[in-house]
Backbone:
């Protein structure tokens, strides 16, 4: 049953970057970013980074909010790696955080690749956690947990975006671990939880018509705020037409809006990005635009 | 004394006496007043949209819901609620997770409305101290698998037969929904229930060895169907 056994039975051709990544020892990266509002202007109060994680503070677009981009300098995540990210939006601040590029999760010889994300928003804060693709290689073991703490009056728009296999090579995942867990708390009280979880044989759930139905990508988002449920109908109006090979839907449950997008990776990226841009304009009066890096 | 033997995924085998069998069959029969017949768990959308159009597709859909999707989640919650039934504080954490862990508005209604109805009917006809203590420790929404597990443990009914009976009811109810929606004949419905016996057994066995941290599933298209059911034009079911 072990991943190592299945790999030895069916070795995969490794790319150059993957060979380099597999040779290195596991790393523990950290990134922490805190902002607060000072007379209505969001300012940096905390910036901590430890390799291979690093943060940049790009100039926001015209009329846009404080932003930070997250970079993994190791060229990808291997088994045993641990990445911890803590984002804190203080009272009244407005912040958008996003990765500089897609993230690769290489096949593991056994250990999980752990990514832990903490998002905390204080009263009156607007916090966006905008994903790019997390690309799972066959045999990857990803265990990612995103924990959100929301104060009364805070608003969070957050998501994740998974791609099952290297698209360019048409790779299909056969084995590994996909655990993408979410916990949302208000005042320390758990209000919403979710986890995509599949362990061991991935080929069967990825092909199943009740599970992933052969799609290559899954993106999710939540909008958590006091007005979330009241915004459901307006947000549904912003969903683009479903392109061929992709589906999406929104629901409102336990006081937040949850969105799911499934399909071919490029189609999901287009719908998801278009919806995200429109949603931030509708919800927060911000430019209906994604960061320049999102389009690279 | 006759006993029903239920084999689990572990070496442990639990027995159930006549009284226990009587109670599980009562609580998990379609006649128990939880309104199970009114929920399709998103199946109504999957039928309408053309994913589930015959008995074979229904079997695949339900087997995968059990192995990888919401059936798996219910089974894991059931396992921990049963084990922690006499520890109200720890049980309240499982209950909080059960109430929070929900894929859509209608799925939330499905589990909490049935959980509430099961609790009321059981306190009325089959009261037990474990269920009463649980309700003192937890006043939030009641996830259906959690309250059935607490009642079963409170009546001394073993985890394995109780979990098996719960998953049988989950399966039987959705087959019944499929029979009405597709539609299928009653014989095809019974054949589907027979064919799903191994998936129920595997799911029950899996739940006994799964840590609570691995709660979750991959039933994303079933979840999406449940979400899209909310805006489906004609609906017979509440989910």
Residues:
């Amino acid at each position: 049953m072990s991943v190592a056994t299945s790999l030895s039975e069916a070795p995969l051709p490794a790319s150059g970057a993957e060979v380099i990544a597999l040779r290195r020892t596991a790393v523990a990266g950290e990134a922490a970013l805190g902002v607060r509002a000072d007379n209505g202007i969001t300012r940096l109060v905390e910036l901590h980074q430890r390799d291979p994680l690093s943060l940049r503070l790009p100039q926001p677009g015209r009329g846009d909010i404080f932003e930070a981009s997250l970079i993994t300098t190791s060229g990808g995540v291997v088994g045993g790696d641990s990445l911890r990210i803590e984002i804190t939006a203080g009272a009244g601040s407005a912040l958008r955080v996003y990765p500089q590029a897609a993230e690769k999760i290489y096949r593991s010889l056994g250990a999980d690749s752990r990514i832990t994300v903490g998002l905390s928003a204080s009263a009156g804060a607007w916090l966006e956690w905008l994903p790019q693709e997390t690309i799972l290689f066959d045999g990857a073991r990803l265990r990612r947990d995103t924990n959100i703490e929301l104060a009364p009056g805070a608003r969070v728009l957050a998501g994740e975006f998974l791609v099952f296999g290297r698209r360019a090579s048409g790779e299909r995942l056969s084995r590994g671990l996909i655990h993408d867990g979410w916990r949302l708390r208000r005042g320390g009280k758990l209000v919403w939880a979710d986890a995509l979880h599949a362990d061991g044989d991935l080929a069967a759930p990825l092909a199943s018509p009740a599970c992933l139905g052969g799609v290559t990508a899954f993106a999710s988002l939540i909008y958590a705020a006091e007005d979330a449920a009241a915004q459901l109908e307006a947000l549904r109006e912003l969903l683009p037409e479903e392109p061929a090979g992709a589906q999406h839907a929104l629901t409102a449950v336990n006081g937040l809006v949850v969105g799911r997008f499934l399909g071919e990776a490029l189609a999901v990226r287009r719908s998801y990005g278009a919806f995200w841009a429109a949603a931030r304009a509708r919800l927060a009066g911000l430019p209906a635009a994604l960061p320049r890096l999102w389009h690279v | 004394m006759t006993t029903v033997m239920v084999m689990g995924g572990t070496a442990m085998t639990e027995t159930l006496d006549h009284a226990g069998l009587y109670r599980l069959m009562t609580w998990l029969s379609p006649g128990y007043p939880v309104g199970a017949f009114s929920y399709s768990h998103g199946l109504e959308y999957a039928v309408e949209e053309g994913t589930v159009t015959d008995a074979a597709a229904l079997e695949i859909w339900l087997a995968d819901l059990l192995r990888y999707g919401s059936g798996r989640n219910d089974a894991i919650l059931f396992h921990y609620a049963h084990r922690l039934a006499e520890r109200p504080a720890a049980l309240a954490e499982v209950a909080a997770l059960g109430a929070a862990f929900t894929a859509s508005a209608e799925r939330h209604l499905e589990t909490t409305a049935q959980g509430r109805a099961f609790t009321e009917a059981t306190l009325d006809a089959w009261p037990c101290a474990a269920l009463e203590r649980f309700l003192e420790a937890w006043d939030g929404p009641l996830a259906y698998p959690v309250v059935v597990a607490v009642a079963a443990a409170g009546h001394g009914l073993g985890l394995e037969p109780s979990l098996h009976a719960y998953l049988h009811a989950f399966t039987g109810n959705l087959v019944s929904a499929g029979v009405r929606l597709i539609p299928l004949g009653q014989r095809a419905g019974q054949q589907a229930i027979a064919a799903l016996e191994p998936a129920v057994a595997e799911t029950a066995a899996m739940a006994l060895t799964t840590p609570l941290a691995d709660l979750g599933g991959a039933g994303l298209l079933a979840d999406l169907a449940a979400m899209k059911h909310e805006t489906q034009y004609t609906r017979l079911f509440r989910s």
User: Anything to note?
Assistant: Chain B touches chain A at residues 46, 51-52, 57, 60-62, 64-65, 67-69, 96-97, 100-108, 214-224, 226-228, 230-231 (CB under 8 Å). Residues 1-11 of chain B have pLDDT under 50 and may be disordered.
